[in-house]
Design goal:
It is a lipid-anchor; GPI-anchor. It is found in: Cell membrane. By secondary structure, the protein is an alpha+beta fold. α5 crosses α6 and α20 packs antiparallel against α21.
Length: about 1050
């Protein structure tokens, strides 16, 4: 102790000066031992560290929260930040190896008595060509169990013969007799430059197989890559074979190899196996080079039970009994021409078929469906040969395969899928139920078939090299829907409904800042599915229509034939497509190529708005162009615009001129000096742009419409209405001018096209006004405007009436009921009650198909649980048609009861409602403000479940965001959407671009309300007859 005390004292004296001692003695200071001092010092350091850490972490968090409060409350900024800061890996496969031929064997288990039910095993042997030395074979594989110890890579030596095998002999002899069991090809035209004689793979009389040593197997799950690393390099110019054995699970989400079912007339469940591989889902079923440019021939074998049938792309070659599995057979199919993996397809079912009478086409056509539904295939059987024949003539190239099967599938990812030689349709897109026969249902089948048939050539025979150019095949097939339908049914030529609809939809979509140009780089695989949208379908279709008008239909068709002839069985680029039009310079401005002309439309965002200002005194006209994106000017954009215009003078021919990437042009001698005749630009809506005029020309057009609307075509009348309201939205035209144009319609517009165009223009106004106190005023304006047309048409079809009248009657009645016109509400309740009181409501529906949706939706809107559950029970009836079922689902969303809305949405995500119809549930809520609000609340509360169900099914997510949430319109909606994103940012990243669309639309509507609502309501109040009379004819 003494020693320690001495030490303590010595240490203490060293740290205290005399002055300190004096001070302490005077002030009563305290002293601590060295141990305590050390402990205190350590504690002080720890406290300082804790304080520092607290300041760092919590201060950083506070700063971050403060920053979030300042910046991320603007959801648009947050989404843009997310999109701009995403990092991406290169997900494309290398080009050092490409496949030549697949030998694929798939054995799915569709046997409920087996513990392995809904699984599959398979084996694939891929013959490959090495173009550049490499030590790695990189394939796609997703959710597959590949037996690594069975992976083999081999080659052969001692070449004794070289020739083109049948699998790459692709040009069909003209004199061949088509046989469903076999198909021969000539060797005149190899399928691709990579498969020419110099690189043809070799066949040996007695080849020696050499197996290569593997170094390791690597799986990169997040990129769906399966990499085989080799000890020695593969040599450039040589062919190799890889053999893989694998297994997987049959999905229930409509992707890859999936299961679906139907109920037979006796109530038994019948299972079906089907495939959906486009765009990146072939890798879920077999290892492959799952990109469109990797075309190869396929030799496919599918295992099935003997009580089932199977189909694939090619005709069945033979069936072989399995030696060790009683009741099972292998179906071996003919070898296909080269095709991309996403076009591979097979189906297993117990269906029957109708053989279509089309022997003169040289192609075997069959329609497959459950046996009890085959009678409903008659309409499709009647029209399919005409469509195929027309397309063969149009393209100048015969249908490239020996057979074409059309299958009605109970559940399908899309309306129809155009796999080569095997097109699958949803029931209502192929079958016509007796209770749903109408022009509308026939038209749906007709146009869907045209679309999918057209892709057998552009999309399958010739495939775009990469998904960024998918707009060409999607847009071309949409464009041909009008071309083929009008050619086969000439009565439709005077009712060009769909071209105008498509143009208006395209312009509405393309104005958004978040909507990119047609041709964009793809940064990640999930972006590929998002390219299959309205921009690809509608804008692509409109641009091809504009090209056809510009270079004439004759030259357009020549170019298409050149394209298909040169690139058949190959992959191409958009430049290859433009280069196929070899004789079109005379239709273009001097020095401007077709590529330059079209690139201005496919590589730029937005679209041009032209302003035509005339000098009436001197007879000239000045035209300026400005780009517009989301109602904002984009003056840095210019387009090559083929202008068309008409003038009032009778028999004035259509005039054309060009804006050659210019801001302003002037047409001298546009009219005679002093002439005040109206003029119209963009005749028949053939150009993808809007047109504004000076006030004088707008007034001249308005007076012409009031005097004799028939002097202006129905399509041009529709275009004028649509342009006027959109220009008002841009603040380029006042709303009073736009509404003034509509005055002629009340008593003088008898055509469906302008009415449709008007209400398409009023959609955005309706989304805003329906949430305000002015909803009743707006509805009264609509009722007052359209009631005379309804009185003229009535609600019963007339003998020999025009198609326009038929469509307009249904259209007007729908608008009257939506606007709560009491006679319409009463009529709907009466028709619905008549249905409810019928003895067999599942079979006998007393409401005409054309009015079924109107009456059902209105009755449910005005009714309660009794009306709702009556219709719900109809959805459970096994033999109801798909067309009726879609009407039922669409109508159930019309209820105003929150608990029924929640119940309905719960059924949509818990599996009660089939997956393909869940999108109809969400769409049904969009025109119901009550359902929109409660549906959004349901979405926020159940997002985790919804995302789990739909995360791989982009089409469902797209409907929820693009169709449902995009109808929101208030600042409160925007706040809720912002909180929704903040709470679920990680899972919402993949739909950031869709949410950006929604934010733009909401902000635009909020701005519109602040700027234009009072103006619009004032005009309506001053010009509407608020005391409209009810029609007794309802």
């Amino acid at each position: 102790m003494g020693r320690n005390s001495s030490a303590f004292n010595n240490q203490r004296s060293e740290f205290i000066s005399e002055s300190d001692q004096d001070h302490d003695s005077k002030s009563g200071g305290c002293f601590v031992s060295t141990k305590k001092a050390v402990v205190l010092a350590v504690l002080a350091i720890l406290c300082l560290g804790a304080v520092g850490a607290t300041i760092y972490f919590y201060g950083h968090k506070i700063d971050k929260q403060s920053q979030n409060e300042n910046n991320t409350n603007d959801l648009e900024a947050l989404l843009n930040d997310t999109l701009n800061n995403q990092t991406f890996e290169d997900f494309r496969l290398p080009l050092d190896i490409f496949p030549l031929h697949y030998r694929l064997r798939i054995h799915p288990l569709l046997d409920e008595s087996s513990s392995d039910n809904f699984t599959f095993t398979g084996e694939v042997t891929i013959l490959m060509h090495c173009s550049e030395s490499t030590k790695a074979i990189i394939l796609h594989a997703d959710q597959l169990n590949i037996l690594q110890d069975q992976v083999e890579v081999s080659t052969t030596k001692d070449v004794s013969e070289e020739f083109f095998p049948e699998i790459v002999n692709l040009t069909r002899d003209e004199d061949d007799i088509v046989d469903s069991q076999s198909q021969s090809y000539s060797t005149d035209d190899p399928p691709s430059e990579s498969l020419n004689k110099d690189s043809a793979f070799l066949i040996y009389h007695q080849p020696e197989v050499i197996y290569l040593d593997l170094e390791k197997i690597e799986e990169i799950t997040n990129m769906s890559r399966y990499i085989i690393h080799l000890k020695d390099k593969l040599q450039a110019g040589e062919n190799y074979t890889v053999n893989l054995q694998f297994s997987g699970t049959v999905s229930n989400n409509l992707l890859g190899l999936y299961r679906t079912k139907y109920l037979s007339p006796d109530g038994a469940t019948r299972w079906i196996l089907n495939t959906h591989f486009q765009p990146i889902f072939a890798r879920m079923v077999f290892p492959c080079f799952d990109e469109p440019s990797f075309k190869a021939s396929f030799e496919i074998s599918v295992a099935r039970k003997t009580n089932m049938s199977s189909l694939s792309n090619m005709p069945l070659k033979e069936s072989e009994e399995m030696p060790n599995q009683s009741g099972w057979v292998w179906d071996h199919f003919d070898t296909s021409p080269p095709m991309s993996p996403h076009l591979v397809a097979f189906t297993i079912f117990d269906f029957g078929y109708v053989k279509v009478n089309a022997s003169e086409l040289g192609t075997v056509l069959k329609i497959w469906a459950p046996n009890h539904l085959l009678a409903e295939a008659n309409y499709a059987a009647d029209i399919s040969p005409n469509i195929l024949s027309y397309l063969q003539t149009y393209f100048g190239v015969k249908f490239p395969l020996p057979k074409l099967d059309m299958v009605a599938v109970p559940e399908l990812y899309q309306t129809a899928m155009e796999n080569w030689g095997l097109i699958r349709f949803r029931d209502d897109a192929l079958l016509l139920h007796p209770s749903t026969i109408s022009w509308d249902t026939k038209n749906h089948i007709f146009r869907t078939m045209i679309n999918k048939f057209a892709k057998q050539w552009i999309g399958n025979l010739v495939t775009m090299n990469w998904w960024s150019e998918i707009w060409l095949s999607e847009g071309f097939s949409a464009y041909l829907e009008d071309v083929v339908q009008n050619a086969i049914d000439p009565t439709l030529k005077d009712l060009d409904i769909y071209s105008l609809k498509i143009a208006q939809t395209s312009l509405d979509s393309d104005k958004l800042k978040s909507v990119q140009s047609l041709q964009i780089p793809i940064k990640e695989p999930t972006q590929i599915e998002q390219l299959f949208d309205d921009v690809a379908y509608n804008k692509g279709s409109c641009l091809l229509r504009m090209l056809n008008w510009t270079i004439t239909e004759e030259e357009f068709k020549k170019g298409i034939k050149n394209y298909l002839t040169k690139w058949k069985y190959k992959c191409s680029t958009i430049e290859d497509f433009w280069n196929s039009f070899t004789n079109v310079d005379k239709f273009l401005p001097n020095g401007v190529s077709l590529k330059e002309f079209m690139d201005s439309w496919i590589t730029q965002d937005g679209y041009p708005v032209l302003t035509v200002r005339r000098d009436y005194e001197h007879g000239s006209a000045s035209i300026t162009q400005r780009g517009f994106i989301n109602s904002h000017s984009a003056d840095h954009y210019l387009w090559y615009i083929p202008l068309t215009y008409l003038k009032e003078a009778e028999h004035t021919p259509l005039k054309t001129t060009w804006m050659i990437n210019q801001r302003l042009i002037t047409i001298s001698n546009f009219t005679n000096p002093g002439s005040k005749q109206w003029s119209i630009f963009n005749v028949e809506g053939t150009g993808l742009y809007r047109v504004n005029y000076d006030d004088t020309n707008w007034n001249l057009l308005k007076h012409q419409l009031m005097k004799d609307a028939s002097k202006i075509s129905s399509t041009d009348r529709g275009q004028l209405l649509n342009d006027a309201f959109e220009l008002a939205n841009f603040n380029l035209l006042n709303y009073s001018s736009a509404f003034e144009i509509t005055k002629y319609m009340k008593h003088r517009e008898h055509n469906y096209i302008p009415w449709n165009a008007l209400f398409n223009s009023l959609k955005q106004l309706n989304y805003i006004i329906r949430t305000t106190q002015y909803r009743g005023i707006f509805e009264n304006y609509i009722i007052n405007l359209i009631t005379p047309t309804y009185i003229r048409l009535g609600n019963v079809a007339k003998v020999n009436e025009s198609l326009s009248d038929k469509l307009l009657r249904t259209f007007i009645l729908s608008k009257l009921c939506t606007c709560n016109y009491e006679p319409c509400l009463e009529w709907s309740r009466m028709k619905y009650k008549e249905w409810m009181d019928s003895k067999n409501p599942d079979v006998n529906i007393p409401i005409a198909y054309d009015f079924r949706k109107i009456a059902s939706c209105t009755a449910i809107k005005m009714g309660g649980r009794k009306e709702w559950f009556f219709l719900w029970r109809r959805t459970l009836y096994p033999s109801r048609s798909t067309a009726n079922l879609k009407i039922f689902y669409s109508s159930l969303g019309c209820t105003r009861e929150p608990w029924l809305i929640n119940n309905y949405l719960e059924n949509a995500i818990n599996g009660t409602i089939p997956l393909q119809y869940s999108i109809d549930v969400w769409k049904s809520l969009t025109n119901n403000p009550v359902a929109l609000n409660f549906g959004f609340a349901f979405l926020r509360s159940n997002w985790e479940r919804i995302n789990k169900n739909y995360q791989h099914i982009f089409i469902n997510l797209n409907i929820i965001f693009e169709e449902f949430l995009s109808k929101l319109s208030t600042n409160i909606d925007l706040e809720d959407l912002t909180n929704f994103y903040k709470d679920n940012e990680k899972t919402l990243t993949s739909v950031s671009s869709l949410m950006l669309d929604i934010v733009e639309k909401i902000k635009s509507r909020v701005s519109w309300k602040n700027t234009n609502l009072d103006v619009v309501i004032k005009w309506i109040e001053e010009n509407s007859d608020q005391n409209h009379k009810s029609s007794k004819d309802l």
